[in-house]
From TrEMBL:
InterPro entries: HIT-like_sf. This is Galactose-1-phosphate uridylyltransferase. PANTHER family: EGF-LIKE DOMAIN-CONTAINING PROTEIN (PTHR34714), PTHR34714:SF3. The chain crosses the membrane at residues 7-28. It comes from the Eukaryota. Keywords: Membrane, Transmembrane, Transmembrane helix. The lineage of its organism: Eukaryota, Metazoa, Spiralia, Gnathifera, Rotifera. The keyword Transmembrane helix applies.
Length: 450
């Protein structure tokens, strides 16, 4: 009898345990940013431009084992890291540790078998250069993977040697003609914008060199256009750039004051058709995110939080910048830093990082534009930028800095798109040595700063 009475209790207990297990299995974390409660115990560092005790030249000779007279090359990045890692100097080892905390570095070899007929053709492309021919037979690919943002670069120098189709018209004439022709019926030029553009609900903001116009086809609740009064997006003066961004900041403050929960400032700017710009006239788009940034930026922000959690609260952006400084891939313009970063989206992408969006940041941006347009003859770009959240107290700095990413798109005269399935769905394949681009930028910028 006793046994019979216990049977329902036994089943009740069994079902309860089963339900508890099920509940545990179905528990998902909705917001990964709130996941690791432990991290709250560690105080996360704010973004700071770390002043490395030693110059990049010191690291070059002492850690990478490269003589001062020699230039650094991306091909040898694994060697520089290996030398730093095995160095007797603790500072060199420390650099290798931070690099490895941020990035995974790999060397891959790909071999080719070439028929005599095809070999003849390749020899023509490579102008009978024996060194290049040897390199094409056994190709070396350097893979740099950012462990936290999952951005990646597959660098193969031979990609830059691929035969290109030449256009009959020069990029410069093609661009000038486009800019001139588009001035004729431009909605944004002169006073045309008063009858051809919408306003934000709080009205239009106007500056001497720029004005706002609400986007007629919004992609967010708070989304506007910042339009320069200069049609020519490739030849803006520094003052015109300053005016546009100061107006953007004013618009952010205005929108944020009306709805304070919208606090994540983001900007994009496409110039000329190659980049997907719908209007030729200079205009950038500004938006304020609700609580979080847009996906691509939020991925980096979450990555930075995870980095802090796993590295005693260290600031991801500070370390990221410091690693590039040590590798000799940055150019300072006051307290703004131009970074020729290791995981670009395309060959001609650079970054600008700073604690604040202010004079030096604008100066750096202007110098980058002049380098690409005037010296490297590139005429189309896409820019993405974000500022720290507006609902954070700024007295002690921010977790994230001001970051601008800028990529020049080419060739402008070619119908073929510069973005393909590889870029969209897999990885970034780069053929231009980051050190070469850095040198070009440095030469152009220093010449203008003299
Ligand atoms: Zn115009």
């Amino acid at each position: 009898m006793q046994l019979r009475r216990d049977v329902p209790i036994f089943f009740f207990l069994l079902i309860t345990i089963f339900l508890l297990i099920l509940l545990f299995q179905l528990h998902y974390t909705v917001d990964p940013s709130t996941r690791a409660g432990l991290s709250k115990l560690i105080k996360n560092q704010k973004f700071r431009i770390l002043t490395n005790k030693y110059s990049s030249l010191w690291y070059q000779t002492n850690c990478f084992q490269v003589q001062q007279s020699q230039k650094l090359v991306l091909e040898k990045l694994p060697e520089y890291l290996k030398n730093s890692h095995s160095s007797k100097n603790e500072i060199c080892r420390q650099f290798a540790t931070i690099f490895n905390a941020l990035f995974h570095l790999d060397e891959i070899y790909g071999s080719l078998k070439l028929s005599p007929i095809y070999l003849k053709k390749i020899n023509q492309w490579l102008h009978n250069n024996d060194v290049l021919l040897e390199q094409i037979r056994k190709q070396r690919i350097i893979k740099v993977y950012n462990r936290y943002t999952h951005e990646e670069m597959l660098y193969n120098y031979m990609r830059s040697q691929r035969p290109q189709t030449k256009s009959e018209i020069s990029s410069e004439s093609y661009t000038s003609k486009l800019l001139e022709d588009s001035k004729k019926n431009c909605d944004f030029c002169g006073k045309n914008y008063l009858n051809s553009t919408a306003e934000d609900t709080f009205g239009r903001l106007e500056h001497r060199l720029s004005y706002t116009a609400a986007n007629t086809f919004k992609y967010d609740r708070w989304h506007t256009l910042i339009v320069s009064r200069n049609h020519d997006t490739l030849h803006l003066t520094e003052d015109e750039i300053v005016d546009m961004f100061e107006l953007t900041k004013e618009w952010f403050r205005k929108a944020h004051s009306i709805e304070p929960m919208y606090a994540c400032p983001e900007m994009i700017w496409d110039a000329m058709p190659k980049s997907g710009a719908s209007q030729m006239h200079t205009h950038l788009q500004a938006s304020l995110g609700f609580d979080i940034y847009y996906g691509n930026i939020e991925r980096i922000r979450q990555g930075a939080r995870l980095y802090a959690q796993l590295n005693n609260g260290r600031n991801y952006f500070s370390d990221y910048l410091s690693v590039h400084q040590i590798l000799g891939l940055t150019i300072p313009v006051g307290n703004a830093h131009i970074v020729v970063h290791l995981t670009p989206i395309k060959d001609l992408e650079i970054m600008i990082m700073g604690e604040k969006l202010e004079r030096n940041f604008y100066k750096a941006l202007h110098l980058v534009f002049r380098t690409f347009v005037d010296d490297l003859n590139e005429y189309s770009f896409s820019l993405g930028m974000y500022l720290p959240p507006m609902n954070e107290s700024s007295s002690n700095g921010h977790d994230i800095p001001v970051v601008c990413r800028l990529v020049f798109r080419n060739p402008v005269t070619n119908l073929r798109s510069d973005i393909n399935g590889l870029d969209l769905y897999t990885s970034s394949v780069i053929g231009k040595d980051r050190y070469i681009l850095h040198q070009q930028l440095k030469d152009s910028i220093y010449k203008r700063l003299k």
